[in-house]
Design a protein that fits this description.
six-stranded mixed sheet
């Protein structure tokens, strides 16, 4: 498997019912990379993550996860290739405690163990303090930490993260940035949707810009200083 991309997408088209939302998306993400998907609302960023997971309607093209074609796979089978998806809405089970939420996810069939609860608590001390609190009683930042922590329990090594900093206090945003840097050092591959460009810029190896369901620009970390003004214009930030 040496040299096999973590994620390879070619000619991806996707629909929600009659709505054609992705138009020929091509993307390669190598193991250990952090790649951001940038774009205005409605550009197709979330649809790209959902299409990777098989959560859109019809899909055409090719999506390979660690070399395995997944375009015709069911979502649960795609996940077992080592994907962890953290949706924007978080999906915390409100009636369960923080620790029960962490204990719930099954291990994926990747042969790699997920993080233990103790490892999670070392990474997210806030969750250790609130381990017996119900999901509804956690703050927005604590819920977001729990949503990220939960997928780390599964053994997933390719993480799809959708707007994990949206609406959160700066101290929580800083903590999430520290966690992503740590995960990168441990070999995780991260595809990140992020509206907060200041958060994304120092983390990512590459930035991919989508517009109307198509990729319109790719900027590497090395080229970022000379392309920042262009990105600001494209993103309207």
């Amino acid at each position: 498997m040496a040299g096999t991309p973590a994620l390879e997408i070619k000619g991806l088209e996707a629909w929600y019912g009659e709505s054609h939302v992705l138009h020929g998306v091509d993307m390669v993400v190598q193991p250990g990379e952090v790649v951001t998907l940038l774009g205005r609302n409605g550009a197709g960023r979330t649809s790209t993550l959902r299409a990777i997971m098989g959560l859109t309607g019809a899909r055409k093209g090719s999506i390979k996860v660690y070399g395995t074609e997944t375009i015709d796979m069911a979502t649960h089978r795609i996940a077992h290739l080592g994907l962890g998806y953290c949706p924007e809405e978080r999906g915390i089970f409100s009636s369960l405690s923080c620790e029960e939420n962490l204990l719930l996810p099954p291990a994926l069939k990747t042969g790699q163990a997920g993080m233990s609860v103790d490892e999670i608590y070392a990474m997210f001390p806030n969750l250790a303090e609130r381990k017996n609190s119900q999901g509804t009683r956690l703050s927005g930042g604590e819920q977001q930490m729990l949503a990220v922590a939960r997928i780390l329990r599964t053994g997933a090594k390719l993480l799809l993260l959708d707007e994990i900093t949206e609406g959160l206090a700066p101290v929580i945003v800083k903590k999430l940035g520290e966690v992503l840097r740590l995960l990168k050092t441990r070999g995780y591959t991260i595809l990140l949707i992020e509206q907060n460009f200041r958060f994304a810029a120092p983390l990512a190896d590459r930035h991919i810009v989508l517009e109307h369901g198509s990729i319109v620009a790719t900027v590497t970390k090395e080229a970022l200083p000379s392309q920042t003004e262009m990105l600001h214009q494209m993103l309207g930030v």
